[in-house]
Specification:
This protein is an alpha+beta fold. The strands form 7 sheets. Strands 2-1-17-16-15 form a 5-stranded antiparallel beta sheet. The protein has a two-stranded antiparallel ribbon with strand order 3-4. A hairpin with a 7-residue loop joins strand 6 and strand 7. The radius of gyration is 19 Å and the shape is globular.
Amino acid sequence: IVMEVETGYVLACANLARAEMRTSPTDETDWVYNELRDWNTAVSSRYEPGSTMKTVALMAMLNDPKIKIDTAMKVRVGVGVFPNAREVKDSHKKNGRDSLSVREVIEESSNVGMCQLGWKYCRDRRDDLVALMRQVFPYEKLNLDVKAPEPKTSINDVNVSVDDFLRLTYGYSTAVTPMQIITFYNAVAGDGRMVKPLFCRAIYDRYGRRTEVKPVVMREHAFSKESAKVVREMLEGVVDHGTAKRMKSEVYHFAGKTGTADYYDQSTRMHTQAYNNSSFAGFFPAEHPRYTCYVMLENVDQSAFGTQA
């Protein structure tokens, strides 16, 4: 998906499905992709997003006046042990260090770091974290101007399970659509101003008269400009020296967040750890964002992390 920051106009929305194999399934270039004509994945499919949702959880905490987070504060990473929860491990961390700053937790996409922040600030007010995430993220249906069903999105009851609470901080225990994710990142690019995605820019009548479809502001201040600025700088760091550093462009500066989530097999109703959903959400140019982009590849090899997308 490509979306205009200021207006919310959707400029591109690809919807490709892998159709057949030419030679070997190990080489991605050997697959043939066709456009799905009867299903809009971006609008109608929901997923556990994985690490692109870490930005949402952190934004929720930054935007809470009760919480004061110093982004230079050090956080223990690598392995996290929490009462009544399974051990949490990072699958990768920078230079074998056992602590990262809050800024580096996003840049290096540390699951344990996000758990530590959630545990420190919200373990006794889990409903507040859910409410704060709903404030900054468009969990409600977007009511888009295309004839495509929008599923009901969800957050698990984090008061039932410590695991669900911790997993929410790094992108699980919740299911959302790609279009909702890009709407959030578009608001990050737009200083907290959240606009509705629009597929239709204008309507022409039979006489050629043009009626503009005006942008729709869903929330003028989904979060503060200050919080948006802090997160934007982190997302620039993701590309400059974090998990997306291999993706840097010589043409223009961009910012964003990689995402990796275990693939959920609908037929078996189980997560498959050998394969992932690989995603990237970001905007460009980073200094004065004009366009937001979201890419997701479903059911790809585990080793890719979000850089494939």
